[in-house]
Amino acid sequence: MTIASDGAPSNIPEGRPSGPPSRRPDDRAGRRADAQTVFEITQFYFDEAALLDDGRFADWLDLLAEDLDYWAPTRTNRLRRQQSLSIEPRGGTAFYDETKESLRWRIRRFDSGMAWAEDPPSRTRHLISNVIATHVDPEEHPGFIVDDFLVRSAFLVHRSRLQTEQNLFAGQRTDLLRRSGDSFEVARREILLDHNVLMSKNLSIFF
Question: DSSP secondary structure string, 57-118?
Fold first, then answer.
């Protein structure tokens, strides 16, 4: 116990400052999300996959944030010591470099009768696994907060079209998710396909 300046005992423990506690960075930044949150995110991805496979693209758009950045860079074969150069940087060639508005335009085109690559439409099956979710570190992702989530997942997408066309796409997605009501919305999505050269005739599906 310490003695106040007027001689009366003080309840402030020795060694503890009497002013307000200093603000510390949220120690959740960069840490794994809890099991309940990972379950909710996984279910969100399963619901998203079902919308894509059912061709409910307008409903899928509702899962995407208005400031969405949807990017799928190409990649090249490099020697082991050059692996940092194997993925095209921003501004380089990309399979997709989209906003929500440009995706909305793509989807409207499906119903225009002019999207020959998707008329008749593809049949797809999206399989999502290996979900790893961490709290966002705002210092690494400006504009986001620690209650948002950085999520990495693996995907396998089978595409069948017309009589005999078959394609298989594998890769990983890295998302930034925000809470939206009792669910989430995708604010950033980076799609990294495992393929160097795509053998499909076109790429007109979503991941």
Answer: HHHHHTTEEEEEEEEEE-B----GGGGGGSBPPTTS-EEEEE-HHHHHHHHHHHTTT--GGG
Partner residues linked to 2 by β-bridges:
10
Name 151's Cβ contacts closer than 8 Å, sequence gap at least 6: 41, 131, 132, 133, 134, 173, 174, 175, 176, 177
- Prediction pTM value: 0.83
- Between 3.80.10.10, 3.10.450.50, 3.40.50.1400, 2.40.50.90, what CATH number should domain 32-193 receive? 3.10.450.50
Each residue of 41-93: pLDDT tens digit? 999 999 999 999 999 999 999 999 999 999 999 988 788 888 887 788 888 89
Q: Considering only CA atoms, which of 130, 129, 131, 137 is closest in space to residue 31?
A: 137
> Domain coordinates of the chain in residue numbers?
32-193
